[in-house]
Amino acid sequence: MKNYGMELILDLHKCDAGKFNRKDLRKYCKSLCVKIDMTPCKLVFWDDVGVPISERQTSPHTKGTSAVQFILTSNITIHTLDLLGNVYINIFSCKKFDSEKATKFTTEFFNGKVVNCMEIKRR
């Protein structure tokens, strides 16, 4: 059976949570796309920006920013947990990319420790 694409799943802990904001996540997505030779399309955020203080997330397992960077061949999804200093990233593409390069760049960008790294061949 021929591969349809690949997905890289990264869980990083003990990250620099100061980078868990729209400006830095935008920079991360742009730089990652260059590093792994992907064509970025639309970038979408989901967070507490513009939400009344009384309605903002406060739980360590929900307070953070999510982003989806659509790329020409699929997407890059990011979920940050600000209070825990964790970031969870999925890079999925039907175009082959260098998962080691993506992991190294992501680890350096967020200054975190990889606790889970898995590459899946999609069929």
Report on this model:
With about 120 residues, the chain is of the alpha+beta class. The chain has one domain (about 5-50, about 60-120): S-adenosylmethionine decarboxylase (4-Layer Sandwich). Helices cover about 20% and strands about 40% of the residues. It is built from 2 helices and 6 strands. A 6-stranded antiparallel β-sheet has the order 2-3-4-5-1-6, with helices on one face. A hairpin with a 2-residue loop joins strand 3 (about 65-70) and strand 4 (about 75-80). The model has no long low-confidence stretch (mean pLDDT about 95).
Tell me briefly what this model is.
This protein has two helices and six strands, in the order E-H-E-E-E-E-H-E. With 123 residues, it is an alpha+beta fold.
* C-alpha end-to-end distance: 7 Å
Rounded mean pLDDT score: 96
Number of strands: 6
What is the strand arrangement across the widest sheet? 2-3-4-5-1-6
CATH class: Alpha Beta
The CATH superfamily name is S-adenosylmethionine decarboxylase
Query: Roughly what percent helix?
Result: 10-25%
Number of domains: 1
User: Strand-residue fraction?
Assistant: 35-45%
Query: SSE order, as H and E?
Result: EHEEEEHE
What is the number of helices?
2
Shape: globular
